[in-house]
Amino acid sequence: MNPVLRTDHLKVHHDTARGTLKAVDGIDLSIAEGETLGLVGESGCGKSTLARCIVGISRPTDGSIAIQGVSGGRGRAARLDRAQTVQMIFQDPSGALNPRLRVDRIIREPLDVNNVGDRSERRDKALKIAREVGLSDYHLDRMPHELSGGQRQRVSIARALALNPKLLVCDEAVSALDVSVQAQVLNLLVDLQKDLGLSYLFISHDLAVVRYVSHRIAVMYMGRIVEIGPAEDVWRGRLHPYTRALTASIPDEAARRDTGELLEGDVPSPVSPPSGCAFRTRCRFARQQCAAERPELRRVGTHEVACHFAETISD
Ligand code: SF4
Q1: Which residue segment(s) compose the domain that 288 sits in?
Q2: Is residue 228 part of a domain?
Q3: Angle at 235 between CA 178 and CA 40, to 5 degrees
Q4: pLDDT tens digits, residue range 92-151?
Q5: Pairing state of beta strands 298-300 and 303-305?
Q6: Cα 241 to averaged position of ligand 1 atoms, centre (Å)
Q7: In the record, which residues are listed under signal peptide (predicted)?
Q8: Ligand 1 closest atom vs CA 278
Q9: 10: CA distance to ligand 1 center in Å?
Q10: Residues 30, 109: one domain?
């Protein structure tokens, strides 16, 4: 069976006055039906650029994206196909919702725009989805500013579900919410996945949040995947020094594993990345080979990892 999403050697490069900025630099990913792939990395590592390519907001400069085995086309029919298969949920629900529309209109809008069913069918569908995401008739009659942050994110999720997509790309979808509300929205996403067979690309800078919802985790650094594998294996048996530093910076993990690997220094400029391994300027395990040769992803146990010395680095 075709995966719901597959990217092959996907690149997004931008020419700037200072050189070529490689925001996404050769990403190969796939997501199966009903699977959540967590994508984690610091701000500016290329996660959101990758997300925007997958949903069709941005165009890649090289490589390909196939949704359910079909590579993207142009025109209205192709856009509707893409919208019916993949939708995106953003970090800030306030900015993503039209402040002048009532909630029922917001949820219905994708159906109206794409002329799906007649008026009463669209209204019924909006009500059904609203209930699925935990909103009531009361909420449907409100304006976005009358709702809490968690309720607004539920509205965003409902709208994203209107066209029955197979894949939701969640870009920092709970980062702006209080911790208790985060848990409610994460649980909702997990329940919806079970009920509707959805697949998620779940993007966050927070590895603890990603671990909670993901079947597999991919770790991204400067436009490339540096580690990918089953979620618990990446969390507990993390191999790449960057993944180790990300987990060491999580408070309860740091207490258990004081490995002295807290992430230090800034991400280098993506216009002039270090030679060899892009992480070497922040890596306490770096050796001569790291400056000379770029490590490619290779299988080590259940993971794939891009580090020359993954096998010899241990707690
Ligand atoms: S290849 Fe070298 S610099 Fe890069 S992560 Fe591994 S040890 Fe560190």
Answers
A1: 238-305
A2: no
A3: 55
A4: 777 778 899 999 999 999 998 888 888 899 999 999 999 999 999 899 999 999 999 999
A5: antiparallel
A6: 7
A7: none
A8: 4
A9: 23
A10: yes
